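User: I need a structural model of DhaL domain-containing protein from Septoria linicola for a docking pre-check later this week. Nothing fancy, just the predicted structure tokens so I can convert them on my end. Input:
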Amino acid sequence: MSVVVEQTIPFSSTALDLGNTARWNTLFPLIRPSVKTVQTQKGQNIVVDTAKADGKHVHIIAVGTSGNFSSKLLDDKHVTAIVTEEKGAGILHATDLPHTLQSAGIQVLHGVVVVRAGKQRKFDAHQPYVLEIETNGGLEQDHVLQLLGTATETTRSNPHHISDLLKAFVQDASTAHSKFHTEKSEGNPAILHVDGTKGYARAKHAVERDLQHVLKAHSSVSKDDVVYSVHYSDVNGLSRLENYIIAGEISNYLDSQNIQYTLSHSTVLDHNEQARGFSVSICPLPSYFLAAKQKPIPHQSTGPTSDTAALKKALSPSSSKITFEDAKVRSRIVAGCEAVIKEESTITEYDTIVGDGDCGYTLRDGAKQVMSFIANKDLSRLPETVAELVSELEVNMGGTSGALYCIFLTALASSLASADSVPKALQKALGELCKYTNARVGDRTMMDTLIPFIETLANGGGDVTRALEEAEKGVEGTKTMEAKLGRSTYLDEAATRGVPDPGAYGLLVLLRGMTGS
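Assistant: Understood. Predicted structure tokens for DhaL domain-containing protein:
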């Protein structure tokens, strides 16, 4: 991998000016191109996601505060519109917003729900199809937005069901807020809970204390046909690792209590309070509003010894319909690998232009690993050897191309042991690979080489020359293609025009070497 290090100087708060609503009216369309800024009849600006124009669900409008937008508001694609400013020629009411959405081309036949962060929970149904909920702060606002985006299809499409859902939230939701204290307590890191400061040796105990506090309000709720919607926010930016730990401890505790639940997360900024921390909001809901998360099925090991023996038997020469001559197979593999190593600089040059510059190194290192691995192997037992090779490449060959090669070779090891010809074995392995990647011909990937080569070889009577010609056409075609997958999708088409896909070209080099062309 090539690494470029440059000094970066953070923008000052003054330069960012994130409290300026005009900045957000410009930034939101950049974050999501389908968003545009429109004005209400009273002069307030709101940003509307035009992708929701013909949506079949109740439209969600969030009222936010510039400079304090949570990650939920920035990321959530279920939200149709965000009110970035409330000052105007008059007070902005929920009933003013449907007309504004319609002026932006949004169909509001299924109704509108306005989610506003305030100081106390309350719900109003201004009209049968115009609902409004005020939450107690940003945590609860994010929780409601999550609920509205992940509720059952029946609920999201019906304003009456949405009304019942929001009423249940206002009545039954409970929260807990914790802040990291600057000083230790009892020799341990301290956290300020709602009931005071306490030191903890492990994060688990701090999280469990908050969960016990919020669940106490629901101790009388039956667990039958009830799903607990659980949302937690990290306040003022916890690290990804810290968030993973909190999420894991929440899941472990709820599982230990045999509670059916869904878990969601957001990041909340509080400029009035610099302390970092986390908050939890929980609301029990009837299961017809919300489906519980699927619990993973524990892996049932059948024992490595029996599996290994069965695999070796299936891939043994006695079970293969194809006879492999060690010398011929070795010659082809070595020639292909040497060709890739020789062409590494060209592959790297192409990938530096259209990717991250590591494709050449990845293929070169993979080729060296293959040659080292087969040096003392009996290649007349090719299916078994290929299967063993994959274990080596999985560790030593990185990148997206490394993963695709490993998947393909795993399938090829099996198909070589069962097919009656190499072209058919390659075709079967290709079919397996296509189950694991969406890439096809025309997507500007290594598949532009692999697919035409194998299909021509399998359907053309094993004509290697013709198969290679089709593979070369595939690589040539990538020079004018717009990338649909991988890192090249982030580049302007003009930047990639005339440059072949590095992965496709690298595979072509390998095939040329193996076929002696």
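Before docking, keep this in mind: The radius of gyration is 29 Å.
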